[in-house]
Specification:
The chain has 9 helices and 8 strands. With 210 residues, it is an alpha/beta fold. It has a domain at 2-26 and 79-111 and 160-206: Rossmann fold (3-Layer(aba) Sandwich). The strands form 2 sheets. Strands 2-3-1-4-8 form a 5-stranded parallel beta sheet, sandwiched between helices. Strand 5 (122-125) and strand 6 (131-133) form a beta hairpin. The longest helix is centred in the last third of the chain and has 15 residues, at 160-174. The relative contact order is 0.19. The protein binds adenosine-5'-diphosphate and zinc ion. The site of adenosine-5'-diphosphate has 17 residues, from helix 2 and helix 3.
Length: 210
Amino acid sequence: MKLIFLGPPGAGKGTLAALVAGLYKIPHISTGEIFRAAIREKTPLGLKVQAIIDAGQLVSDDITIELVRERLAKPDAAQGFILDGFPRTIPQAEALAGIVKVDAAVNFEIADAEVVARLSGRRVCKGCGQNYHVSFMPPKAEGKCDKCGGELFIREDDKIESITKRLEVYRAQTAPLIDYYRKNGKLTDIDARPASATILDSFKGMFPLA
Ligand code: ADP
Ligand code: ZN
């Protein structure tokens, strides 16, 4: 199954993608996570993109497309994958169409006010990247990762100015992809408001395991 997860920041795409990837045994490819890993490891790519990402802006199409092209060429992506956070612009979607044929684009629907509530409470593990939320998904011990004991921190782009910027960028550059995939007959809308376990259940109904 080759899937794209579309939707505003904070819609819970990453959380659901991780669950679906585990269940369907396909890789979860998050461009945001790949960039953040590069920033953590201070690679040349990481150094190049850090300021752009912290400000809530988009990395250039050239860099992002090349990154995804390389990732999709790896053997584990041959049978299926979830692309989480890519494509984010029409040029990225057009480039993707030249790389691989996707089965569906899943569009996570949620209001801006809910996005702000979710992102401003998000905490991320320094060690393994696991996400938490201070009220909706708190860790067992405050400030500490359940999985690896790592310290939790607030993403620079989850500060309020960057959240506002990311929503603006989403409306201007990414939301047009909803129509793009609807016209292709590939779009499936999903209500992003319920808990991720509930969304996973509706997902299983829409995309039954073979
Ligand atoms: P979000 O939580 O906003 O959905 P992601 O983790 O998907 O964020 O991405 C974080 C940041 O990484 C984005 O705000 C952007 O700067 C950069 N990024 C991720 N994917 C892309 C992409 N496909 N094109 C350009 N920039 C991207
Ligand atoms: Zn951790």
